[in-house]
Amino acid sequence: MLTKKNIFHSKSAFIMFSLFILGSGIIQAQKPIVTDEFDRFLVTKETKVGEVIGQIELVEPNSKPTVWSLIKPVPGGDRRNYLKEGQLDATEIVEIDANTAEIRLKKQPLKNPAHYYAEVRATNEDGFMEQVLIIIAKKEKPKLENALDIFTQRREGGGLMFYATETVDKEKIDYAANVANALLLKDRKGSGKITEYVKKSKSAMVLFKTFEERNTAIGFYMYRRELGFRAQDLEDEEIIPDYLRLGGPKNLRRDASVEEITHKIHRGGIMQAYPEIQKRIEAATKVAVERGFYRPQDGLPLDSYADEYLAFGLDVYYGVHSRRSFKGKALTPENLPELDPELHDILHFLFPNREEFFKEMGWEKDLKN
Questions:
Q1: CA distance 242 to 319
Q2: Is there a smaller number of Cβ atoms within 10 Å at the N or the C end of the chain?
Q3: Any alpha helices (H) in the chain, and if so which ranges?
């Protein structure tokens, strides 16, 4: 998914609570929409009290006046469970401007290095939404030359780079790189244009053991643009190697790596290599939403619908949603040409089929499932 312009922001799985009627464009409610992830800002020994260290931004335009406030962290109070017991309170060291959402340092942190947490609340006449705020306290500002030092394990898969910290499971890194390589199998046998653009765009996955470890990489996120990276982060616990192979069983957590890798290939390669295919994806998405075949998660920004629909379609193409159905017809690879012939044709053009993908992954024995 797309990320915000703020260099300290993590992955952008944005949630929009605004209600709308498809096709009509009539807005019924416009709550202020902030990220459902977090913003993080750096404080060092050199940061002066009263200095602006960052600013929160809405992820969707909103013409109604917004009032900003800080909320003390409540363990489990956020939808992603980033707030936990024992975390330091960011409201003790920073404040937010009610009108501009600028974050100012009001007191030097007593603990340094350390991470401080709070929630930011954006409110207007239609309601409010909250997001997590993280203040990273370090003794000095990280340096550009050390931006990649945290990533001691590195792989390449299909032109997509994988940077992982020392604590990430080696087998999971290999699995993720193999997925990228297998997804681009058909492209390599054909024009190779997608792979070429993925390499040219310096698309990469950055892997961490946990969310907390991801915070320690603020030096990387600060300099990501200078490094020329188009990176998507992923946590070790989100990589579930058996999920796709076994057809998405209910007793396993969903594997997020396949979706995120697909997004990087889509944004970093497909859109540039085949702009006409991108237009077809967008048109197919619109039709799928209108007929109820695809239902975007609540509040997903409109410009992300096509990204998510392509990833959803690939899940069907590879047998992940076979236990689900649409109007009495199972979401199987065999039924996809009937369920959405245009989506099937697009996927067939871009990616290897299920048999080809499984063989490339070394999963021949699982093809009967």
A1: 13
A2: C
A3: 170-183, 185-189, 193-200, 211-215, 218-222, 224-227, 241-245, 256-265, 271-273, 275-290, 305-317, 336-339, 341-350, 354-361
Do 321 and 256 contact (CB within 8 A), yes or no? no
Cα 170-9-272 angle, rounded to 5 deg: 75
CATH 2.60.40.60 maps onto the chain at 19-137
Of 30, 32, 99, the C-alpha closest to 59 is 32
Bridge partners, residue 157, by sequence:
160
Report the C-alpha gap between 192 and 151 in whole angstroms: 28
Cα–Cα dist 139/117, whole Å: 18
> pLDDT tens digits, the chain, 369 residues: what are they?
443 333 343 333 333 333 333 444 444 568 898 887 899 999 999 999 999 999 999 988 899 999 999 999 999 999 888 999 999 999 999 999 999 999 999 999 999 999 999 999 999 999 999 999 999 999 999 999 999 999 999 999 999 999 999 999 999 999 999 999 999 999 999 999 999 999 999 999 999 999 889 888 899 999 988 998 889 999 999 999 999 999 999 999 999 999 999 999 999 999 999 999 999 999 999 999 999 999 988 657 788 999 999 999 999 999 999 999 999 999 999 999 999 999 999 999 999 999 999 999 999 998 875
Query: pTM score, two decimals?
Result: 0.81
> Domain 19-137: which CATH class?
mainly beta
Name the residue with tokens 């649409």.
326
Give the closest residue to 43 by CA, choosing from 97, 101, 90: 90
**What does each C-alpha distance from 18 to 31, 100, 175 come to in angstroms?**
6, 22, 38
Give the residues across from 94 on adjacent strands: 105
